[in-house]
Amino acid sequence: MSATVLDVTDSSFTQDVEKSDLPVLVDFWAPWCGPCRMVGPVVESLSQEFAGKVKFVKVNVDDNPAIAQKFDISGIPALLFFKGGQKVDSIVGAVPKANLQNMINKHVSA
Predict the structure, then answer these.
(1) Which residue in 58, 63, 73, 78 could disulfide with 68, CB within 3.0 to 4.6 Å?
(2) Catalytic residue among 33, 43, 59, 73
(3) What distance in Å separates the CA atoms of residue 91 and residue 99, rounded to the nearest whole number?
């Protein structure tokens, strides 16, 4: 885990995501999920690309079922984008980096 992508738990989600001053990309994942492991490095790369503009966090759905349930996470990887504490966008499944860049750029001014 790099310093650029934060691990978030059921208990820290409100503080780290919903009360964040920056927009937040949340990666819902699990260690046993192959596609999640493919998305991980993409999220890492984007966290460096958008450093200071967007906060990047990961939620392990096995360890944090309450937050996964709150947002009806039924398939992983699920990438949710929060702005002002509200979910404004999401992508489910392993997608190319460009798809995630487009989602972020839609909500973040350069």
Answers:
(1) 73
(2) 33
(3) 9
